[in-house]
Amino acid sequence: DVETDGAALLRREDITVLDITPHPEDRLGLVKAALEAGKHVLCQKPFVLDLAAGEELAALAERHRVRLAVNQNGRWAPHFSYLRQAVASGLIGDVRSLDFTVQWDHTWVSGMQRFEEIHHLILFDFAIHWFDIATCLLGERRAESVVAMVRRFHGQTFTPPALAAVIINYAEAQVRMSFNAHAEHGGEDVTTLVGSRGTLRSRGPNLNEQAFMDVFLAEGQARVPLQGRWLEQGFMGTMGELLLAIEEDREPSHSARSNLPALALCFAALRSADQGGAAVRP
User: Fold this and answer.
1) CATH number reported for the structural domain that contains residue 13 in this entry
2) How far is CA 28 from CA 22, 43, 49, 178, in A?
3) Could you tell me if 57 and 89 lie in one domain?
4) Is the pTM of this model over 0.85?
């Protein structure tokens, strides 16, 4: 069915779960209306434009006894899923450092007004996935400071800065991110996670093609084949986890509230970049 009346859609009793995908500034009212109508919601990322709005939506979902999840589909990308499970199992001990190095071709946004108007297109709209994974892997540890910088260069085909770098400092750990969104040839995506008992590394030509995980432990090393791709398993994972959480009457692991720490880091990075790389406390 195709509905042109949003209110009529919310009144339909045969629809209990909504996947709401417009940009953050356009969907806030839609998400509120859906929650108030008693619908479960999968909200597109980035979740909100400020933490207060995120807290409000999370509380609204709780009052109406519905589930609100965020489409942080990177959590179910095969390589990130492996990292999450490995850390949770204690395979590499305490996390000491986490490095993301991503060079890819994002020039497809050139000329698309809604994307061209987002100054921090890379650091916010794109990198929110990496802030989210970082918070998943660092667990309950709180960041002490965030430093970020962005740069444009002559010849870019889109307006927002294509280069971005972030350092997140913890008491006994550090997360480092490096992004080049204008790599039209020879792109690569590498993730390295170092713990007190071992190292994990995935590498591929892009975020969607990560064929294996290299595992380095005192007992030896191995190359573990990974099955699936981010853009397939990721989207299946977010909706699947929400539906399962509804069925089991529990909070989904990618609940709105669980996404707020990642947003706090991301917003701190935006403030740092706007201040020329000053250290900001999230």
Assistant:
1) 3.40.50.720
2) 9, 9, 9, 30
3) no
4) yes
